[in-house]
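Incident log, structure service

09:12 report received: a user says their structure output differs between two submissions of the same chain.
09:20 pulled the input from the user's history:
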Amino acid sequence: MRIASFSTSNQEPFVALFLLLLFGCSSPKEEVQTLPTEPYIYVLGIAQDAGYPQAGVRSEFKLVEEGKRKKQHTVSLLLVDPENKKRYLFEATPDFREQLEMADKVSEASIYPFDGIFLTHAHIGHYAGLIHVGFEAMGSSNVPVHAMPRMKKYLETNGPWSQLVNFENIKLEALYDSTTISLENNIKVMPFTVPHRDEYSETVGYKVTINQKSLVFIPDIDKWEKWDVDIREVVKDNDYILIDASFYADGELFGRDMSRIPHPFTSESMELFKDLSSKDKAKVIFIHANHSNPILYKKSKQYQEVYDKGFSVASEGQVITF
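09:34 re-ran on a clean worker, output below:
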């Protein structure tokens, strides 16, 4: 058993007596999070690919060091099936190590580390964490990795990812656009393609259905008008919508032409959704925020504006039930 360095168990007797009299006989209790017994989603990260603080931005690291801001892990969701002791990861991020530790604290897997990993596309924040199941790290065996055709081929034919396949650290499972796969406990997962920079793979969002309720996850997409689907109808037709909030507004990136990074601004999405009912607005959860997006900071006026307009921002450790 691990004993804390400040425990009365390793103090001299008179010191232990003093501490006992000072703090009382009862030991402090850790707050325990009560988790659902039915399948649920657990948020492992909410930041854009580079996380927060971002590499090289000393001012952000200083804010975290001073306790003025919190570190934010890269966007990832955990689908947990407690009854069958299974769990599925959405996005293998550069924060894979920390997010696996988070997952281990709230869930179990029948295939360690995950019973399946679902990838959206080949940008670093969404698949680079696969390195941790490889030969130089965990040396995992046949972890199912679900990927679309181009993504699957990319992993099979480009190192170091091809080594994961050749060494059987991962087992690639093909996904197809708008084709549902069924997991245990009547859990269904359906990928669907969305417009985005597709240098190495196609890009998908996911629809997860549990107990007749559905969650849509779109961490990366170009402007809404580039999609041949009306996102407002998607909101109406589902129960939870976790969508790309990379940037809050134009001009956010100093010295860069943001038209070349065509994500929907958080402010644009809220304007697009302004005529939705209050019930539908409450379904919208913003996620995948760039380090520059002020909604990562709960004390910012932009964060408050999201809530004032009827929407919300995802938070690490958030539990979504069905």
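09:41 both user submissions now match this output. Likely a transient worker issue. Closing.
09:42 reviewer note: Residues 1-30 have pLDDT under 50 and may be disordered. DSSP finds ten helices and 14 strands in the chain.
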